[in-house]
Amino acid sequence: MLHFTGTDDIVGPEGMEKFCEDIGVEPENVVMLVLAWKLDAQNMGYFTLQEWLKGMTSLQCDATEKLRNTLDYLRSLLNEPANFKLIYRYAFDFAREKDQRSLDMNTAKCMLGLLLGKTWPLFPVFHQFLEQSKYKVINKDQWCNVLEFSRTINLDLSNYDEDGAWPVLLDEFVEWYKEKQMA
Description:
Elements: E1 10-11, H1 13-23, H2 30-39, E2 47-48, H3 49-59, H4 64-76, H5 81-95, E3 103-104, H6 105-116, H7 123-132, E4 137-138, H8 140-152, H9 168-182
Antiparallel strand pairs: 1-2, 3-4
Helix pairs in contact: 5-6, 5-8
């Protein structure tokens, strides 16, 4: 790790790029989010020496090659629903500005794309809805409910209960989507 750090025992954006290059992964690959989760990293784009040492010890990786060989294992964690939910919830706090309680919409769209883009068939339409919506941020309740919605609501929205406890954001999405289907 030391050859990725600056002077403060922190791997920052430049070191992160070099690190990703060394392990053969794009920085925006979802496996990097899983690695950050495993390291319990607090700030996106940065790993502290402490986070690094603790995480690499738990992964039993003391060399770049071992970490490279661990990537498939890290990816496989996304296939376990309980782990995915933990990673998904972690992503919200990891990606938000620490002085904010919500996630700005651009970051939220990127993180949702990273986490749900390949697995939720309605994601492209939901992304389109967010693009044109009045929302500037997503709060943690909305964030968590998007995952629940993606896992429980049918693609044709036939089991969506308008009187359910969904956030207004999702009520508006359903209404928008149904209008779009009729057009």
